[in-house]
Structure formats: C-alpha cells, structure tokens
Specification:
With 219 residues, this protein is α/β, with parallel strands linked by helices. It has one domain: Rossmann fold (3-Layer(aba) Sandwich), CATH 3.40.50. The strands form 2 sheets. The protein has a 5-stranded parallel sheet, with helices on both faces. Strands 3-4-5 form a 3-stranded antiparallel sheet, with helices on one face.
C-alpha cells in the first residue's frame, strides 16, 4: 500500500489529537502534532523572558532549537516539556507565537521535511492548506463551540482541572479568533478537505470514517 500523507486540521477541542493518534497507530504511521512545536517555542520564549511579539528573537529561538515531537512526548533542546506545554498560559503564548510569519516559515519547513516520505498523520491548523496542500487525504475536524469547551474543560492537561466550562469556552473563542484572523496561514477549511463534525460522535466512529477515506486513497 502507498504510504500516504494524511493532514488533519481543525480548531481546539475538535478531536484532532485523539483521532490522529488512533489513526497513526492503526496505520503504523508516524504522528506529528505540529501545535506542540509552536507550544515548545512559546515555552522556550517564556523561559528566556523573550517578548512573544518580538518576531526576530522568537524566530531565532525556533531556528536554533532542537524540537522533537515523537510518540506523544515533546522535547526541546533535550528537555522534556510534554506536560509543561499543556497549560492555559502556554495555550495563549502559543497562539501569539503562531501569528509570527518568520516562526511559521521555520516550523513549516521542518514539518515538510518530517512528512516528505509519506507514512505520516500530521495534525494542526494549516496542514492541508499550507504545509501539505497536496496531501493525499485532508480532513477537517470540527465540533460545536459548546462541545469543544466541554471536552477541554474535562481535560486536566489543558485546564489544570480547575477551570470551569464557561472560562474554557472564553479561552477557546479567543484562540479561534486568533487562528482564523492571523495574516499568515489562518485556520480555514481547504476546498478539497473532508469536513467531519465530531459533535456527539463516538471517537471510534470518527476514526473509522477517516480510516475508510485513507483506505480508498491507498488502494
């Protein structure tokens, strides 16, 4: 079977991570969470006390950093930041970093190198539109704002287990606004992507739907 490039995009809380990991496991493909790369850069910028809107400084941090996203773990310059980058503070910092064109240019180049040989499930917000516009399979996962907020509020990795659903909904709305209005690589539905609404749909059903699309492409 041909080893494909599978692009999975969508907003926060739509199920990208869960579906992407399940799909990569089933296919024996590599899974890359591109959002974790932006989070790692944001984490390092905060560690260095760099202003998140200082494009030159943050871009240099991105360029010079060794970022590894593998098997659910994330490290930067050899330091495991898997848990450290999953906080509301880093959510906000990553959104700011993701708006910087030079940072996106550096990380997109790395993402393309990771997926060049196929056999990859890559998730993010611009995979099917910018990183791999010629991806073999393009999926756009979405869900209602209420459903996405409910999922995130229940995820201690992002909320610390203390945020109420209303606060999480406000945070998600702010992230959606940032992602969809940024000048470079905004979050948008690629014309040839298959949009799947995951609201109220069991995760295994979503995975089966995506798997069927992949099988048709790889036949």
């Amino acid at each position: 079977m041909k080893r494909l490039i599978v692009a999975i995009d969508g907003p926060s809380g739509a199920g990208k991570g869960t579906v992407s990991r399940a799909l990569s496991d089933a296919l024996g493909y590599r899974h890359v969470d591109t959002g974790a790369m932006y989070r790692a850069v944001a984490w390092k910028a905060r560690e260095r006390r760099a202003a998140l809107d200082d494009e030159g400084t943050v871009a240099e941090l991105a360029r010079s950093s060794d970022i590894v996203v593998e098997g659910g773990a994330v490290s930067i310059d050899g330091r495991d930041v898997t848990r450290a980058i999953r906080t509301p503070e880093i959510d906000r910092a990553a959104a700011a970093v993701a708006r910087l064109p030079r940072v996106r240019e550096i990380l997109v180049a790395r993402q393309r190198a990771l997926g060049a040989g196929g056999g990859i499930v890559m998730e993010g917000r611009d995979i099917g539109t910018v990183v791999f516009p010629e991806a073999d399979v393009k999926i756009y996962l979405d869900a209602s704002a209420q459903e996405r907020a409910r999922r995130r509020a229940a995820d201690a990795a992002h909320t610390g287990g203390q945020a109420g659903q209303a606060a999480v909904a406000e945070s998600i709305a702010a992230r959606d606004e940032s992602d969809t209005t940024r000048t470079v690589s905004p979050l948008t539905l690629a014309p040839d992507a298959v949009r799947i609404d995951t609201t109220g749909v069991p995760i295994d059903q979503v995975v089966r739907t995506v798997m069927d699309l992949v099988k048709r492409k790889s036949a």
